[in-house]
Amino acid sequence: MSTNSILxxxxxxxxxxxxxxxxxxxxxxxxxxxxxxxxxxxxxxVKAMCAANSRPFEYAFLLDxxxxxxxxxxxxxxxxxxxxxxxxxxxxxxxxxxxxxxxNMVTGAARAEAALLVIDAGEGVxxxxxxxxxxxxxxxxxxxxxxxxxxxxxDYSEEKFTAIKDEYTEFLEQLGVHPTxxxxxxxxxxxxxxxxxxAEMPWYDGMTVLEQVDDFRKLRGDADKTFRLPxxxxxxxxxSGDDRRIVAGTVTTGKVRVGDAVRFLPxxxxxxxxxxxxxxxxxxxxxxxGYATGVTLTTQIYIKPGELMVRAxxxxxxxxxxxxxxxxxxxxxxMVMGKQYKLKVGAAxxxxxxxxxxxxxxxxxxxxxxxxxxxxRHDVAECIVETxxxxxxxxxxxxxxxxxxxxxxxxxxxxxxxxxESLDDTGSVxxxxxxxxxxxxxxxxxxxxxxxxxxxxVGKLIILHGEYGCGKRRTAKQLERALxxxxxxxxxxxxxxxxxELDHDVRTRDRARENHLEKLGDLARVITDAxxxxxxxxxxxxxxxxxxLKMMTAPIEIFVVNLGENQFDNFPVDVALPYRPEMDxxxxxxxxxxxxxxILLK
Amino acid sequence: MNQLDQLESKSIHILREAYREFNNLxxxxxxxxxxxxxxxxxxxxxxxxxxxxxxxVDTSYKIxxxxxxxxxxxxxxxxxxxxxxxKVAIANKQTFPEGNLTRLECCKALxxxxxxxxxxxxWERMRLNHKTGEYEVDSNTEPYTGVIxxxxxxxxxxxxxxxxxxxxxxxxxxxxxDQPPELWNQYKTDFSPGTHVRIHPLLDWxxxxxxxxxxxxxxxxxxxxxxxxxxTRYRSLGCGPCTSCVESTSKNVDExxxxxRSGKFANIAERSGRAQxxxxxxxxxxxxxxxYM
Lengths: 602, 293
Prior knowledge:
By secondary structure, chain A is of the alpha/beta class.
């Protein structure tokens, strides 16, 4: 064996699925034993344990290493085993067949490049044979090989094998899945796993399981697709004397080079790649699919973790708050409408709601139910989901990796799906909320003009914006004092401070912020309509936050004072102040601008 | 991308994910090769920096070179080094080497218990002051809610069931039968108050992968892993009284890689020199359930 051969040897993740007791673990045990992939003594150890407990030895026991698992005699989790052939190193994920363990099966299948689906020759096609076939295709596993196991129990009957092959092929065709092969085996007897079954099944002239596994293709080409990098984080380790501002993440597809113009979505900010960064490695000028990397940019732009970095010269992803997805649900409580979930796509996570259930598919029968209002555990459903703010994504059939979402319910990943279509915002939950609110709004006998004349100002929401510690609260309070002393009708609304504290707590931040901005919008609509100058502070907002506040307070718009560096891309800031401004000057500038814009009338 | 590139990128992705999502995050550093590779990967993930505290549980029976190596590297790489210990058990001689506990009881007291209370902040944490070079009582007593651990799924049975992000409840319990799904680079990063999450960036690595990576990256290891002229070396590091050397004349990383790849250890389990495994019939599961790493 040459020194580099192992590094160059291919590596592949495969998953083994199928109905409970159809013999998946036995197949793996055999694969490991027949490829000499077991640690020395392991086989003997398990054999001795079986002898001590007066149980016949089974290859499956090799995998069922956990005590409680052996007690129950079924595979509970996805156990990962390693085996190697001359061609490759394999990780084989043993996915449990019981429906209760669907999330374990999903975990195993989602990381696989190919799947072995085991069907018992005696029992034939069962519910989970179908469900797993469906899930494997939805999870994006491109290669599927069907093993018809326990052929020894049906006297290696070609008829039995062909019957199962025909029935299951028909099922797969409905899904548009074309299996690479059907292989008759007896894992227990070691027939057709590594050794050719000439004696037992002279009628079979296809590959053994091991030959088939080595024949799976290594799917390449991610580097040739459109460039996508979900931004995990932005690092600046200034305290350690490092001034680089590094946009970090893993390239999911495509490549980007130094000098490429890039765009970040959903914010839409643009820059150019200045360098590709790394530690203890040769200098790089490009980052390609699969690599966890980092880049610096030629300009200082404010982007947040969760944005999708794309190349300006390539096809752009979709940006939307509403989309149609195909998903399956693993959570015990069903997915229902009117409840807030967290949706994760790429590196982004946002609050989301179920807007509509289009149809629920019975995975085993492939029949659809269209009148459901919720998605139950183990359902596969097509539905419309709405997020509280726009996210960037691709459609599943255009760029699979960035077209996948998971849905978190009560701290757990409960749903997973692929995006089929991007939908427009009209009819969104927020637009509906505003419409209803305005529809129900009954006006009194006093007009806005009369109020303005009495108070010397028109109603307006004044937002002081800037990062933590920039002095916006102090400025807001002084502004209230100054405007009040000038005789205006004004009020400083200080509850935002609470959310500023929360701002450092990532887990609760997003949801709390969304709620707060929504409430602020509704409140400001009332108070500004009553003719007041409502002053409040907001931390670390983006264009979308301000657009939304503007929409919620319409027709009376917002007045934005920014302290420190301006993080907004397009949204116009009315007054730009420095970080921790000198107070008298700051108040004067704000008041002058309010006068110039006709907000203060005297 | 070769296999090491793939493993490296996946581990880095997981480390960055953990760093973004957890406010009180730490990394366990046992001084052994696995967690040292993990530390190296952290420096890769954070572009030469290690912005997380490294927690070491000192049983007081660690081989002395390990502590020396730990503190040298901590100074050289400017690491935020935190050390915990079961001072009461050690002071009262409630240990296996003192003859008062079995091996497993000793592991539980000096490792599991010490770790649990160090992570929760209930027991004193000692932090390296880089200015004085001394360890001082750490004023931070907040519990760590995310703990990065260098376990690998090929080590023994129970570890092959682990997730990359694995929740533990208040009692540190690991509910093996009901684990969260992981798919498409999405992990369990949300957790209810009182629980914490263990993060396992090395889950997919094998012993050979680690050594090949150590070779490729030129990662400095404690020299106990190599034969220093006596024809023996450590293959796995632990406490002196319960860890034995293996017969080997491998003097450097290249020789160890060759030895593991094709030589005498190709088919012998790595932890075969760790006495506590054998005392715990079903692998490390009893210890693991109690929070052993």
